[in-house]
Amino acid sequence: MSQVTVTNGPATPPVQPTRLFRSPVASLSSKGANELENSEENSLKELTEYVFATMEKEFCFDVVNKPGRKTVCTCLHDLGEQINDDEVDDCAKALFLFCKLEFAERKRIVKEWIRSGLAAQLMFQGQQRETSTRVFLFPGSTTRLICRNALCQLIGYGKKSWKSIVELVKSGNDPVHGLKGKTGNKLNAKSQGLMHEFFKDMQQYALPRATKIVRTQMVDGVNTLVELREEEKDTIELPSSMTKRGLYNRFIGGLGWKIQWDNKGRLLKKTEMGEEQKHPARQEKTLMMRMPLRRL
Ligand SMILES: [Zn+2]
């Protein structure tokens, strides 16, 4: 009887790449401006703790080539031994400001970071490795330098985002949002349908844009002919008495909700209205009383 030889795998499993910390910048950046404004204190605390945590690691971890692999760079750890708490606070504040920026603006700043880093790298060519890799400014500082992996770790950038911007810098192009001209990922079909209905209904209050009306004086100087330029016929405008917040109130009110804001536009309270108030006719009446339409 022939013997079957079972080949065992290696006695120890291969070393797994370290799971990278996830920077709070990624999740904070996806929040709306108001939400960020309201959570400034907690966000700054979270960012400060994160900056301290990254500096506790002895080595920087690769983000750009083989994510999760340990590199020989110790820039963040070294920085942790040199800087004081105020500088860490400044970094957290800079990261918070970074989160508050629009997507395109964030990309533009990273592009500038990379541009100056690559320029510095050229100047440092031939010098020792440490000098030629620590070419990016530590957020919130104008003198402290870190490597690209450390910067990626701090600003929550992964391999794909970083490399796409490096490509832009090299090609001299401007960043473009991946969804430009397409429908957003967060689009909710139900909300979209409701809003579509709402705006269709609001069309009855709209008029062509006042600034785009061309008035042509008739020859006898008495009659005035009002015409629209050909290309502006599809553009209509709601009366200026209808504010964005007013419209939102109207929209949400129609769905049976009542919203209260403070004078800075921050959400204070959201209450569901009773059945009686939800009645469309009553709702319409109340809203119309609250929102007098300008005579046009
Ligand atoms: Zn480093």
Can you characterise this structure?
By secondary structure, this protein is mainly alpha-helical. Among the domains are: 148 residues, no CATH class; 58 residues, no CATH class. The protein is 47% helix and 10% strand. The protein is built from 13 helices and eight strands. The strands form four sheets. A two-stranded antiparallel ribbon has the order 1-2. The chain has a two-stranded antiparallel ribbon with strand order 3-6. A hairpin with a 6-residue loop joins β4 and β5. α3 packs across α5. The longest helix is centred in the middle third of the chain and has 21 residues. The termini are far apart. The C terminus is likely disordered. The structure holds zinc ion. Zinc ion binds next to α4 and α8.
Describe the structure using short key phrases:
13 helices; 296 residues; mainly alpha; two-stranded antiparallel ribbon; binds zinc ion
Order of helices and strands: HHHHHHHEEHHHEEEEHEEHH
| Low-confidence blocks of residues | 285-296
Average pLDDT over all residues: 77
Terminal residue distance: 101 Å
Strand order of the largest sheet: 1-2
Tally of DSSP helical segments: 13
Distinct small molecules bound, one entry per kind = zinc ion
Shape: elongated
Please outline the helices and strands.
Elements: H1 24-29, H2 33-38, H3 40-56, H4 75-82, H5 85-100, H6 103-123, H7 129-133, E1 136-137, E2 145-146, H8 148-155, H9 159-171, H10 189-202, E3 207-208, E4 213-217, E5 224-228, E6 236-237, H11 244-254, E7 257-261, E8 267-272, H12 275-278, H13 280-290
Antiparallel strand pairs: 1-2, 3-6, 4-5, 7-8
Helix pairs in contact: 3-4, 3-5, 6-9
